[in-house]
């Protein structure tokens, strides 16, 4: 028999579920406690306020992204790696979608979180640039340094703004689907369209088809 989930972990998971479904601003610590059937005092024993819960969720999101946004060791990149990176990004965006929806508000509310996010963004941009360079080195992308830098920045802008874009066109965060986020990943891949090496075109086109979600399902 599996051991019971500890209260602290239950708070984290319930908070993530509620934030994703209703948006972080709509949920208070009292909502979280009531959802779990525990007293507010029990919740405060584990987390002093809602910002502390958000900080823990961000740390987990940060760890998840840091774990895959890196080059493999001892080999060149392949098209299969492109699929891996895109699917891993999709999974992280979907699991922590409330962070992307309410990002500016969250950072304005917590100076320490804002500084952590700034450093996280720098790491992500550096990691993504190394990965794109890896695809250039592997002969999959044909780009010069300026194009690679612009691609990295444009991909980051799409990744960090896609959920907010969906919320402006679809309404509440609870109305979002994984397919809608998949279209965001497709948009990132589409940025590379003019730089694909001819010998990689067939494999990349297959990836386009796998990720494509019709626009009418998105807006």
In a nutshell, what does this entry contain?
This protein has 219 residues and is mostly helical. The protein has 11 helices and no strands.
Throw out a few tags for this protein.
219 residues; mainly alpha; Tetracycline Repressor, domain 2; 11 helices; 71% helix; Homeodomain-like_sf; DNA-binding; HTH-type_Tx_Regulator; HTH_TetR
Low-confidence stretches: none
Give the overall average pLDDT: 93
Q: Estimate the strand proportion.
A: under 5%
Fraction of residues in helix: over 70%
CATH class: Mainly Alpha
User: Which structural category fits the helices and strands?
Assistant: mainly alpha
Provide the CATH superfamily. Tetracycline Repressor, domain 2
| SSE succession | HHHHHHHHHHH
Count of discrete alpha- or pi-helical segments spanning 4 or more residues: 11
Alpha-carbon Rg, integer: 19 Å
Described by strand count, sense and barrel closure, the largest sheet is: none
Counting DSSP E segments of at least 2 residues, the number of strands comes to 0
Shape: elongated
- What is the CATH topology classification name? Tetracycline Repressor, domain 2
CATH architecture: Orthogonal Bundle
Structural domains: how many = 1
Please give a structural write-up.
It comes from Pseudomonas zhanjiangensis. Residues 28-47 bind DNA. InterPro entries: Homeodomain-like_sf (IPR009057), HTH-type_Tx_Regulator (IPR050624), HTH_TetR (IPR001647), TetR (IPR025722). This is TetR/AcrR family transcriptional regulator. With 219 residues, this protein is an all-alpha fold. The chain has one domain (50-217): Orthogonal Bundle (Tetracycline Repressor, domain 2), CATH 1.10.357.10. It is built from 11 helices and no strands. The longest helix is centred in the middle third of the chain and has 27 residues, at 111-137. The chain is elongated. The mean pLDDT is 93.
């Amino acid at each position: 028999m599996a051991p019971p989930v500890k209260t602290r972990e239950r708070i984290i998971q319930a908070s993530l579920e509620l934030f994703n479904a209703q948006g972080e601003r709509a949920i208070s610590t009292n909502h979280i406690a009531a959802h779990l059937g525990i007293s507010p005092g029990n919740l405060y024993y584990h987390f002093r306020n809602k910002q502390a819960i958000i900080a823990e969720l961000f740390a987990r999101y940060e760890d998840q992204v840091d774990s895959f946004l890196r080059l493999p060791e001892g080999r060149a990149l392949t098209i299969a790696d492109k699929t891996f990176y895109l699917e891993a990004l999709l999974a992280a965006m979907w699991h922590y979608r409330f962070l992307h929806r309410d990002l500016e508000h969250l950072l304005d509310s917590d100076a320490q979180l804002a500084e952590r996010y700034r450093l996280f963004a720098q790491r992500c941009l550096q990691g993504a640039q190394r990965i794109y360079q890896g695809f250039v080195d592997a002969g999959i992308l044909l780009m010069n340094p300026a194009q690679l830098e612009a691609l990295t920045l444009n991909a980051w802008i799409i990744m960090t703004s896609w959920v907010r874009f969906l919320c402006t066109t679809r309404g509440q965060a609870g109305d979002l689907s994984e397919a809608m986020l998949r279209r965001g990943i497709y948009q990132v891949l589409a940025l590379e369209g003019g730089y694909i090496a001819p010998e990689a075109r067939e494999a990349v086109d297959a990836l386009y088809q796998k990720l494509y979600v019709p626009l009418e399902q998105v807006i």
